[in-house]
Protein 1
Amino acid sequence: MWSIEQIIGALNQWLQHTLGNVGAAIAAYILLGIFVILFFSVLGLVLVYMERKVSAWMQVRLGPNRVGPKGLLQTLADTLKLMSKEGLTPAGADRFLFNLAPVLMIVVSMLLLAPVAFARNVQIWDLNIGVLYVSAISSVSVLAVLIAGWSSNNKYSLLGAMRSGAQIVSYELSAGFAILTVAVLSGSLQVSQIIESQQTGWWIFRGHLPVWVATVVYLIAVTAETNRAPFDLAEAESELTAGFHTEYSGMKFALFFLAEYANVFIASAIGATLFLGGWMPLHIGNWEAFNRVMDWIPSSIWFLAKTFFLIFVIMWFRWTFPRLRIDQLLELEWKYLLPIGLVNLILATAIAVLGWHF
Amino acid sequence: MTLRNYLRNIFQGLRSLWTGMRRTGYYFVHHKEIITQQYPDEPPRLAERFRGEVVMPHNESNEHRCTGCTACELACPNGTIKIITKYEVTPEGKKKKALDQFIYHLELCTLCNLCIVACPTDAIKMSQAFEHSVLDRRELIKILNKPGSRLMDGVE
């Protein structure tokens, strides 16, 4: 059976055979770039459609159902519309920064894709501090939001950007602690090793209470970090008229939009990697036959299924909860999530040291 | 804030969040509950008391119940109804006031239902038809009594 790993290996061999070492490396980078751009476009289309359907069903509506079968082409039509629109730059805006912000936003999302393990041995860059890299790079996106808000020269944008700054700086901590919990248990920051450590069972099953708490904290924190409802104060359509991207239109707006969904995907992918075992199939103890069947399902399917499950949960949050006020938002972080995260980390460390996990 | 209160806060918060999520999750999997009406494709489900326009029902022999008393015209707050009466000669040779034209200006009507309430003989009622768009404004001025129609027997 063909796996993604084999296809990539064969492609790499063929490239090296025809182009030599240097040529193959350059060709691989170009192919990778094309892949990332294509992947993001497809991701945007799929996730926007999914979001609209999920929101519709949760609000007892039908959702898009006019363009194409079951409305499948709706997001494609929307994208075409966005591409044909004029990308306006306001007269009072800081031209350079205004145009830089959406690019910075999308570049950050693309960088975050590097340590994500899509399938067995399929990873763009398996660096030895993978999860640290993720939490470090993801906080750069606040810079893009701040630049966008500031350079727009618009009070709503600036307010949205400032809120976003306070929010991301705060929730970064909780997300970090949740990630640390798993890092402590698995004893590594390398994404591939974290996945290897879940061979006998995903951390959510093996880690008892601390991992459950960490999962919930992580989900809340990344929802806040990706600026999605109920933490969407930075955008807040109803009070800030879309916040930091009020002044953006056309493709520049589309980049922000795409980056939001890409960030949701990446946050879910990292969450799935940490708590649900990434591409690792579901194994239960000594049930040989069951484990064999689970192994038969391709690892990329496992990864995508888990990721999309977490994406669904984040969408579920969005379409259930009302938006928090800024003081409630900060209270939730500093009075609840952060202390819980700290205590939880101590518990997890104790469990890891004493070897109480399965 | 004691530790006990703190923990209770967390659990109560989580429970109420879960209640909300259970509700939306229920709707997510129960598509039968969807309330969207795909109007042009399927006939709309209108409320019983939905008011579309004023009509005057006629029976099979082209008779209506309007005596031309102008109670509706007086009740109308914005001059939507104009009633033109005529004199008919009864078989006994008496002259009697009767309805000639019931002119109804749909473009002025607010569908307030006051004319229907005012009518002593229940000659007019609200219909549920709501697709009123026309290309010429004059088409909205309607004559409700059909040509050649007359008063139903026994209605005074």
Protein 2
Amino acid sequence: MPVTHTNTPAPLASTTPWQDKMQVWLPKLILSPTIVVTLICVYGFVIWTGLLSFTKSRFLPQFDFVGWRQYERLLNNDRWITACENLLIFGGLFIAICLLIGVLLAIFLDQKIQQEGMIRTIYLYPMALSFIVTGTAWKWILNPGLGLENLVHQMGFTDFKFDWLVNSDMAVYTLVIAAVWQSSGFVMALFLAGLRGIDSSIINAAQIDGASKPRIYWSIILPCLRPVFFSAIIILSHLAIKSFDLVTALTSGGPGYSSDLPALFMYSHSFTRGQMGLGAASAIMMLAGILAILVPYLYSELRGKRNA
Amino acid sequence: MKLKTLFLAMTFAAGSATAGEVEVLHWWTSGGEAKSVAVLKQMMEQQGHSWKDFAVAGGGGESAMTVLKTRVVSGNAPTAAQIKGHDIQEWAELDYLANLDEVAKKEGWEQSVPSVVTDIMKYDSHYVAVPVNVHRVNWLWANPAVFEKAGAKIPTNLDEFFVAADKLKAAGVIPLAQGGQPWQEATLFEAVALEILGSADYRKAFVDHDMAVLKGKKMVEALTIFKKMKGYTDQAASGRDWNIATNMVITGQAGMQIMGDWAKGEFIAAGKKPGVDFVCVPAPGTQGQFTFNVDSFAMFKQKDKGAMAAQNDLAKTILTPEFQEVFNLNKGSIPVRTDMDLSKFDQCALDSMDTFKASATSGDLVPSFAHGMATTSAIQGAMYDVLTNYYNSDNISAQDTANLLADVVEDAM
């Protein structure tokens, strides 16, 4: 019986053909439920949502096709435009500030300081909270009548004003504050692990060559951390795009809909406002947005790695 | 053979479990509301039916609606569900609701319930839902002690409202307690619009969606006053729940609140007496007018004979004077029946009932658009967006908002 062993390592002398077959089939067998579930629950539902976005479904799915009508309505919808702009502001600032703080904290912690373990835990701890808790806590802190502003007023500085939460031009930035507070510790941990993984002989060599510390970090260490940047950006951007709980707890999209985000828009239109078609169209737009950013990025990163 | 009997037994067991059983989806889980539901359960059990509670708490029924949709789509609809206003029409259009004409005729609903309310309960002139209570939305709740201290008079029209508000402000209290959520802002706007537009134009704008009225001069005026009121609220209102706002009036932190009569429950729960510790007057300028918000149960089609009988009994029980009395005393609303003895109700409820009866004939009884009575949830949502954006942003004029209002309504129609 001819058996090909192109992919599997040479079997031990005692294996039977049956064991050989098992070796080939077992991984497939084990993976198949996951594949089926993924196919149906991810790709199947993506197609289903896409289909719904071309119908005039109201509060239950129905199949009267209306072409691109829902997308037209979406692009004419002021709230949707605001939500998209907010996502750009929130996502951009959130990722940039998290990376900056994360990298800086990691570099400082990497200076072989005392009590590193404790400090690391303190910074990492917010990550253990759910976004709902973060949102609620910051809602109280930022509320002008209850939190920070009130506190400073009581200390005697009555001119102090910090009303971002209730100011429709600034509310979206409060989301950034809360989200950065929660996630920058996690980014720090990622970079700390990356820093520890760098071969110290490279740094020693640079030091012997007389390079200054900032120079070593800027020209040697940070470029070495490129893969860490890659994973941090992927994780942060998916946190930003899917963020729903934080907005719900912190501002519920308000004041007005000034801090609305696409995920919130999608949920409220599909499930509470009985506009499933419009909601589906917005979901597809979100997917398209993610793909438009991720595909070129993944492509350049992964191709770069292969060539290296 | 044995297996077959087992199967048979199982089918019978399942059959008898549904016979005479009512499963009721609701989100009345808090204090007084839960008590009211318990009464309904007891009354159903006295008639020999079994009650299966299907309470889904939270979010003004949003989560309950999501559960309901999945249940109905999978062919497993409950007997009845707390659905109100225009959503009843949507469900009926999809052909999920049962016909209650027989019970309605036997019980004489037409005679005891005003036609403005029964119209909402009907689809294609057949009864598909049962009204439970009537809330009046255009109320103003005031704390008389605060008004006295500020030397202000409780307002009866909009001019007096602003005079009083200025006095309250000068006395260092927040004149108007408001919660910064779209539905609360819509509730406030609705009260202003009712006064400025009048009942006929209100109906034209929010029920028939007459574009000329929606972007008309009066609408711009109503929007301007609505925005002016914001100046008399406090800054921290953003995201505040309505009951917290009511509590500000109770504690004297704020002078008044414009809110539906569910606010009364908060005053009563805080041990306050109507007419003494707090007063209820119609929202400024809306004496004799009544924006109603009717809670109701829609009845879903049942296959089983026993379940159908139980469903009819449930519909009947809900509209009995006994249940109406107990339920509405707990809920703060008034009965939908206009032929009831109201001796146990307080002055606010009696006033509400008088206006309800009078306005039903004068044409001043109008559906609340802020509470899903007047229009589809799509149009309601679109109007919420425009109103809340206008109220909270300083970058848009009243005229532009009125035009936008007309545009979004047309788009969502």
